[in-house]
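Exercise 7. Given the encoded structure of a 320-residue chain, write a plausible sequence.
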């Protein structure tokens, strides 16, 4: 019953290299925001680049909504956080993990897109003096969904959701933006509507590590909340650019690129081809959920997302 309820709510919501000198600094104690919180287990995927590889799971009691990959990058003068998790507690666990590694200020909190599992932990960093950064479309998208996100996730996560609130970005990216952490530059890029209408990528110049957010799913079935054709097109553009490693929004902490794009590209193009054929043949939208069935068994949480993906694709493709 809980699984069915979680799936219904999700449908509503989705309308070890050596550490650099800065990362090795001794933290200046535990702040009030990280007291009595277990730090997230982080992997150092490149020097000064830390990632929490989340489990394949729906938000629920026992995981505090920490179901998306999140991370941080430490420069000479400051750190930047990339996504914050699905609750205040998830964000506090991320902050505690950061404070285990550096006492430097958190200069930026960057959200890769609008979904709650990636940004409802923002409040944990509100007292850190950080600037919150996002795609230019993020404030409007977040405002339209804020009440629903808070209510639905409070029900899913339970007591661990206490204190969670919306913290929107104030520094917006329309095309590209560089952020300097002191001898370390992050390249941010806003993308056309794909996974969502607010997708943003973050590339660490020093290690050539690219955070792709939910433009890349590995192992976890993709979740469509933007435009299927747009997502396929953006993936093609991303795949044309080499990178030493990429961090997906869901999946391992870091994966090789562009090889990691093959599976999601196959899923999305299969979905597109099969739904397009249904539309052409006059199949009713109620049958759309069987599209991409050949991908079942290849992805975690397939039954929780695929039918909705197919229905969203049908709505898009019937107007081609």
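Solution.
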């Amino acid at each position: 019953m809980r699984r069915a309820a979680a799936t219904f709510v999700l449908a509503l919501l989705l309308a070890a290299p050596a550490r650099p000198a800065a990362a090795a600094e001794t933290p200046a104690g535990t702040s009030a925001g990280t007291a009595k919180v277990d730090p997230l287990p982080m992997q150092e995927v490149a020097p000064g680049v830390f990632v929490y590889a989340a489990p394949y799971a729906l938000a629920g009691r026992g995981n505090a909504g920490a179901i998306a990959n999140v991370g941080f990058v430490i420069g000479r003068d400051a750190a930047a956080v990339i996504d914050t998790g699905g609750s205040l507690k998830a964000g506090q666990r991320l902050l505690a993990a950061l404070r285990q590694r550096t006492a430097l200020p958190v200069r930026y909190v960057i959200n890769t897109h609008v979904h709650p599992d990636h940004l409802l932990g923002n409040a944990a960093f509100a007292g850190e003096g950080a600037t919150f950064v996002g795609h230019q479309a993020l404030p409007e998208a977040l405002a339209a969904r804020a009440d629903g996100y808070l209510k639905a996730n409070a029900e899913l996560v339970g007591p661990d959701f206490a204190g969670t609130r919306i913290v929107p970005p104030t520094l917006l990216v329309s095309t590209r933006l560089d952020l300097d952490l002191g001898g370390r530059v992050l390249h941010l890029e806003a993308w056309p509507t794909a996974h969502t209408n607010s997708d943003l990528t973050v590339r660490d110049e020093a290690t050539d590590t690219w955070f792709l957010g939910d433009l890349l799913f590995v192992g976890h079935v993709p979740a469509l909340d933007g435009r299927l054709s747009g997502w396929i097109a953006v993936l093609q553009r991303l795949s044309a650019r080499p990178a030493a490693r990429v961090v997906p929004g869901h999946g391992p902490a870091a994966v090789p690129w562009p090889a990691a794009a093959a599976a999601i590209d196959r899923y999305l193009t299969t979905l597109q081809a099969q739904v397009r054929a249904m539309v052409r043949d006059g199949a009713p939208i109620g049958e759309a959920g069987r599209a991409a069935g050949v991908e079942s068994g290849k992805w975690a949480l397939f039954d929780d997302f695929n039918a909705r993906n197919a229905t969203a694709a049908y709505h898009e493709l019937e107007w081609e």
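Remark. The first strand starts at residue 43 and ends at 46. Students should compare their own answers with the one above.
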